[in-house]
Amino acid sequence: MVGIIIVTHVSLGDALMSCAQHIMGRPLSNVAQLAVSKADDPDKVVERARQMIASLDDGSGVLLLTDIYGGTPSNVANRLIVPGKVEAVAGVNLPMLVRALTYCHQPLETVVSKAITGGLEGVLYMLPGSNE
Questions:
Q1: What GO MF terms are annotated (predicted)?
Q2: Which of 36, 53, 72, 110 has the fewest CB atoms within 10 Å of its CB?
């Protein structure tokens, strides 16, 4: 099963994990979150992330989901990419995470693709009465 690490500014990853667990209705044994603060030493954060990757990777690979591209969390994730083994996607949102979890038993390449489409399709302009 593909491991997923949510690498975000402060407590965003924890909130996303909590919401995803509520939606999925099961423990998320293949998911971890790494909170990053602007006060953190990026080298130490990278080392913590490497330890998380090692603990979550059962041979299926790990997907890093990070919040805003260009921020410290995405810069950390970028240093961890190993094509085909550790992949990263920026712009994490709840639909992206839920989609990645739904397909986490598929190959890493599929999980990456499904996460991206889930994130994109989860952003909609809402009109009054559109959800009735």
A1: kinase activity
A2: 110
